[in-house]
């Protein structure tokens, strides 16, 4: 029996970009492009109508931009995963989109096979963001508000117990569940349970946001790895 295709919505204000994305992704048998939107407002309406699993979202658009649209979509009870499109690695707008709930980002000049892989990964619940790129983004965005942000982050993380804090740091370092389990001498199932509790306690959407909060709190700098 053939698996149900991943339902994908494309959001970009440039019709040529949308057409190119649709063409390159159209060859993947396990992905179905269910709609195209020119801005965040149109995306919100199309998500209601087409119920996509993943949204490939441009950041800079007129009317409603990708960051605002991501925040709105991730607040929905049936929220799709969001991957943002950008032209720069160290783009502060990408960091804002990740904080809004995006599961990762891809560059617009990324090879087609890698964009298809990113869609598949986020549909499966895996973030598409390496720890190195995460740190690059956060260093790029660090500024005069760093101390205040660290204080807020540490206050939020105070609700975690010691083991959950260890798991949060490991997530921030980019370890997968199996790596965390091996390092902390616990089962993969226990790691998954801890991650679920961390997300619930902190009101976060995904592992990327755990990593961002751990970085903001200075936990990754304190960590000896």
Automatic annotation (TrEMBL):
<dbReference type="InterPro" id="IPR001789">
    <property type="entry name" value="Sig_transdc_resp-reg_receiver"/>
</dbReference>
<protein>
    <submittedName>
        <fullName>Response regulator transcription factor</fullName>
    </submittedName>
</protein>
<dbReference type="InterPro" id="IPR039420">
    <property type="entry name" value="WalR-like"/>
</dbReference>
<dbReference type="Pfam" id="PF00196">
    <property type="entry name" value="GerE"/>
</dbReference>
<dbReference type="InterPro" id="IPR000792">
    <property type="entry name" value="Tscrpt_reg_LuxR_C"/>
</dbReference>
<feature type="modified residue" description="4-aspartylphosphate">
    <location>
        <position position="58"/>
    </location>
</feature>
<dbReference type="InterPro" id="IPR011006">
    <property type="entry name" value="CheY-like_superfamily"/>
</dbReference>
<feature type="domain" description="HTH luxR-type">
    <location>
        <begin position="153"/>
        <end position="218"/>
    </location>
</feature>
<keyword id="KW-0238">DNA-binding</keyword>
<feature type="domain" description="Response regulatory">
    <location>
        <begin position="7"/>
        <end position="123"/>
    </location>
</feature>
<keyword id="KW-0597">Phosphoprotein</keyword>
<dbReference type="Pfam" id="PF00072">
    <property type="entry name" value="Response_reg"/>
</dbReference>
<dbReference type="InterPro" id="IPR016032">
    <property type="entry name" value="Sig_transdc_resp-reg_C-effctor"/>
</dbReference>
<keyword id="KW-0805">Transcription regulation</keyword>
<dbReference type="InterPro" id="IPR058245">
    <property type="entry name" value="NreC/VraR/RcsB-like_REC"/>
</dbReference>
<keyword id="KW-0804">Transcription</keyword>
